[in-house]
Amino acid sequence: MARSLKKGPFIDSHLREKVEGMNARNEKKVIKTWSRRSTILPDMIGHTIAVHNGRKFIPVYVTEQMIGHKLGEFAPTRTFKGHAVKAALERAAGVAGAPGAPGAPAAGAAPAGTGAPVAPKG
After folding, report:
1. Average pLDDT, the chain
2. Helix/strand/coil for 59
3. How far apart are CA 66 and CA 85, in angstroms?
4. Report field, pTM of the whole predicted structure over 0.70
5. How far apart are CA 113 and CA 68, in angstroms?
6. Strands (E) located in the chain
């Protein structure tokens, strides 16, 4: 559910003060914050805000398209490492298709399905 329009967008007061102070001094330093719940306002455009993801700070450069979104949306907290089933299938296919692996055709062997016997050389 969206926040009430009469209340306006939420931003933590300590973060708002830091951004307003930097705008007043016309400086661009990285602002560290744990406030993932704060909404991005037009005053933040051009600043880099380091948002904590639970382990480290992720630098987020604020652009015009980010206005209205939350800071936490741009600092993911989970690392996706792929689907386990897909990885297992790829490993199984890689082992069967590898040269010299069990089940793989030996080097110099006749292609399967030709029906012609191969005489050994020598």
Report:
1. 85
2. strand
3. 35
4. no
5. 64
6. 31-33, 48-52, 57-61
